[in-house]
Amino acid sequence: MPLAGRRALQVERQQAAEDFVVGHFRGVVGPVVGGGDGLVEFLMRQIQPGGAGVVEVVQGALLQFRFMAGQIVAENIAAAARRLNELRENWLNPAEWVDWVITPEEEKAGFPRRPVAKPGHEAELKKRTLTNLYNARPTWLNLAHQALDKAVAAAYDWFDYTPETPDDEILRRLLALNLQRATA
Fold it and tell me: What's the pLDDT score for residue 88?
């Protein structure tokens, strides 16, 4: 595989360099640890194309392996999801319509603050439901979902993804990835 197509692993360094594996998709670039039982190599083969993984070993024992789509990709997904949630929450509970309250008992029990309609906004606030929001599907909601979809598609290296990509094509690609992982 050409170097440009390789995905570097992100490694958490808490021990000496020889206690970590550094690699890329479909291969391991030493040093490899794990007692020669092939476990690290097996885990490395589980990384999806375009993904990266973390293998952490301490004193020769495998402690942790997790899949990562890459720090930047993960941050983009998180940012798009936070933005979508923020927009929905602002629509559901407009600041000019609600006060956020909590009783001492609720606070002691660990409950979050809850919105209570300000006088004169009770009827309007009752109409602010996710069902009504998604039935109305305002442009800002569509754009926020498209931004999240695009960020997730990037995690799969689907840089040709657009909001017009048919569901059948998305499902075909996901099935291909699942079949690939099943035969690896």
Answer: 96
pLDDT digits (tens, 9 = 90+) for 58-93: 444 333 334 444 677 888 889 999 999 999 999 999
CB 40 within 8 Å of CB 55 = yes
How do the domains of the chain map onto residue ranges?
A: 3-68, 71-167
Q: Is 17 exposed, middle or buried (0-12, 13-18, 19+ CB in 10 A)?
A: exposed
Q: How many CB atoms lie within 10 A of CB 150?
A: 17
DSSP letter at 151 equals: H
DSSP string, 54-96: EEEEETTEEEEEEEES-HHHHHHHHHHHHHHHHHHHHHHS-TT
- In terms of Cα–Cα distance, which of 116, 72, 74, 71 is closest to 93? 116
Among 26, 10, 15, CA closest to 57: 15
> What is the residue whose two structure tokens read 């794990």?
34
